[in-house]
Amino acid sequence: MKKLNQETTSGRVCKTTALLSALTSALLLTACGGGGGSDNAATAVSYTPGAVFKVGTTTFDPDLPAEPQLPTDAQVCATLEASNNLVRRPDGSLPPEADPSKTGVGVAVDPAVANPDQARIQSALDACGAAVDKEVGAAIAAADAAAVAQQTAAAVPNKNIAGISGEELAKPQYRGSKFAVRLVVNSKGPGNGFISGPLTLPSGVTLWIDKGATLYATRDVKAYAPNVAGPYCGNTAVSSSKAGSSSNCLALINGNNLINSAVVGDGSIDSRAYAEIVTTDKLYPIMKVDMSCSNTYANYAKGTQAADGTACDNGGTTVNSKTTARNMTWWDLAYLGNMVQNGTTGTGSQSNFRMMVFNYAKNLTLYRITLNNSANFHVVPSGIDGFTVWGVKVQTPSLAAFANPAGNGNPLYTGDTYTKDNVKNTDAFDPGAATSPTIVALTTGKSTTSSAKHAFDGYLKNFVFVYNYVSTGDDDVAIKGSSNPSPAGSNLAAVDGSRDVRSDRKSGAVIAHNHIYWGHGISIGSETNAGVKNVEVYDNSFQHSEEGLRIKSDYARGGEVSNINYKNICIKDADNALLFTTYYSTKGLPATGPKVPNFHDIRLENVRILGDSAIKLQGFQANTGGFNLPAFPLVMSMNNVVADTPSAMRMTMSDAQLSIKGVNLPIVASTDNRVTVNGVATWAVDGDLVLDCSKAFVDFPAIGQSNIFGSGWDK
């Protein structure tokens, strides 16, 4: 097997270490060393010069499939040019005159201005989808039908009908000769922006946003909630007692039942969650920053205007036609619903649209695209066989979020400007399994489907998340174990990296070679009830993140998480470098009773922590919450897990069985907290001899001047 291409570093002189007086009896000062540790903490650790891995320098990984490629010009179905009316500013925003707000009660905006490009982009996608289906649809259908027949006859216990594999469908005979819709800058003027409402991505089609072009989400709330009878989008409640939900809104890009689809390019997508919500229907209820509303859903459904003083049913107070307050933004709603109303009443939650939602696909790719400022989660893929995210940049909030004619930082309704702490529920990537297997027609256009039905087993398989740059206000990537398509009683995990692994890769669940900035790091959970196992996480860096490595759950959503391997990780200035907890929230228990989290066979190797940080290692205590429940301790091995300043680590440990080697963290056994430790921590581990982080932390790659972290490179 070829070695990873990487730089190495030679040995360094041992660093001077100091002992905390409180840990003198527990931590032994041993010979300087690193790279493997020793079962006997008083024995010098062996080290081979030149063997230290340098995080952030790998350019080729033989354990991964081949890098995706952009389409060629010959593979383009249609090329659409941006209108010269839409010119992106250097900070990434559109100027206010591009699609001006009209915020008075009973005032509607012009659809031609608020959403000028949705129809033409969707028309091009539909035409391309129809052409692909005509060219290769029969071949795909025949291959799938043959596979389904064979699998049905075999009747393998606990095995879903999956149809033809994604690995087989990646072959050229199942791809159209022309399959891409390309959005480009105007060839005769300055135009470089598109404004669109929700788009349907057809099977076999690639949406290609070229360098310099930006697809902006329309601010028209009606686009995401087109049905007068509901569900309703753009609120924190949908009745006096029921909270809002993002499932009430169409996503900006929707994709269901797909084969060989993609979103690619060196351009960007900006959901503009920082901008005022507007409406093309003057009766649609809009919430104002003074907490009044423009109408009620009850009156809107009847085509009437509610009288002033009528109680709002969208999370606001009362209808007020005289207010001069501006409309809420999507992030106003997120903060209000999740942090204020939910925190006080437990019933608030934003109904904000997501950037991309995909359900059931084989071979879905996101490549080199930049994603900014989602109103809710950026990418939510469920039940995908072959989900590849490669070279993608997510930055939320970006500099565009601070653009404001008054120059006051475009604040939240509270007056605070956007930070990593108040741009809520903007998870970057939340991959997981679907609820069940299905046999369904493929989506060939917004309102068309294939003539034949195709099988999907519902699992997340062959997930590759590599070479990405992610900064957001919530989880950077979180594998969700909330849904499970496995047969009842099978005891199979919803997400299993060893399931149907393709021949072109070593593992079926890989998160590697990424740079993480703001956000909650690389997570599993908090929904783990359906099970997650066999995930490989390696060669990743975290800089100024809220969390680094995290597995989170609670006994409302708990389940088994096992065989999770972390290796060659650099973490700098994180609030919580390591956070493994079975007490993530206090959500109400399901009617069926507690779901107990069980985290075991969690392995950390070559992890280096720089700066002041916290570490939380918490398994599940027996008889928690008054229930007669068994204990499920956190079972974890730590090999060469070191901090540059061990005295700055704030440790919380309970109900854990830890095996440690070459670890300088203040880890000690505790009878009171039910912590057992195999091995002894030593301050004599030299971080430079464990892992080289000198190239791990880099500027976020800027798009023009849009880098909130300062200078970067234009790419």
From TrEMBL:
The keyword Nucleotide-binding does not apply. InterPro entries: GH28_Enzymes, Glyco_hydro_28, Pectin_lyas_fold, Pectin_lyase_fold/virulence. Pfam families: Glyco_hydro_28 (PF00295). Residues 1-31 form the signal peptide. Keywords: Glycosidase, Hydrolase, Signal. Transmembrane segments: none annotated. Belongs to the glycosyl hydrolase 28 family. This is Endopolygalacturonase. It comes from Undibacterium aquatile.
